[in-house]
Amino acid sequence: MNQIHNRNTYEISRQFGLNLDEMVDFSASINPLGLSKKAEKKLRENLAAVLHYPDPQCSALIKTLAQFHGLGEDQILIGAGSTEFIYALPHVLKIQRPLIVTPTFREYENALERTAEGQTGGVHYFETQEEDGFELNVESLLFALTRGYDALFLCNPNNPTGIRTEKKDLRKILVQAERQKVWLILDEAFIDFTEEESMKEEAGASSRLVILRSLTTFFALPGLRVGYMISNPQVIKKFHQAKEPWRVNALAQVAAVESLKDRAYIARTKELVNRERERLIHGLRSIPGFIPYPSAANFLLVQLHPSLNMSAAGLRENLIPHGLLIRDCNSFHHIGPFFFRIAVRSRKENSVLVKILRQVCKDMP
Q: Which residues pair with 187 in a beta bridge?
């Protein structure tokens, strides 16, 4: 298995003698506003919930999500982060010959390789190309789905590229998946910033669509681990039967419910990220040799021009003494050593990053 987020912040803080609160983590794409103030208040009021077992059905959270998305409660299942479902998928759906659109989140492959089903026919890849800006070639993918795969893993917007696949193209892919009896595993962990492209409305009527959603990044809840699945009621029932009880703790349920109800926080988040993302792109473009890609998420993929004679891993190491962490993309399949990913954070933090990047480049021999 690849290292989680390369070296994690705890390991780096120990090695370099940095306090965690002195570090600015651009490697994790978490809401720059932090936790919703209403959710924080509700957490403080409900600390006594740790004295009781959590609701194993997550009833209040499911009801809130159903209202939030306009879906039936029987279409939603809660988990300890969407990663829980990624690791359950190969077992529950008995996946034997998966196809993964790359470069993308490495946990799909890790989960498949840990199961006998996933190893039976091997993991296969559909590569998006650097020369195409990592845009998905939909027609080529539709043809690829005729080659006997039983599951397609697609992230939208994609991690780490930030590229969005339009809903009209996703519908074409779903039609082909149903025709070829292929499970379409659609990871919408970063769809909150472009909700109109979500396929959630198609999930109820489809026999082959499984959508994974996260509450970690948009609502700044990485330490509480909560995510959910959207699918048709029969698929949800199948996963529910395979699920361990009490997987989602009581405080995670409280925080998620209150965050979803905080519509002002949601609106501020979208406005902030959309504004600061464009400003960060502009700042990066002002540094010779830095090539940021367009993004529909709260992070950016950036390429270093080979003329800089520096890899993304090298840049990452140079930034650590400054208390800045970025994610080099070495652990992602089918992407070169000159790519790194950074989160969109506050204006002040983004400005500091651009300033230090410029300084690091000037100090290069």
A: 155, 212
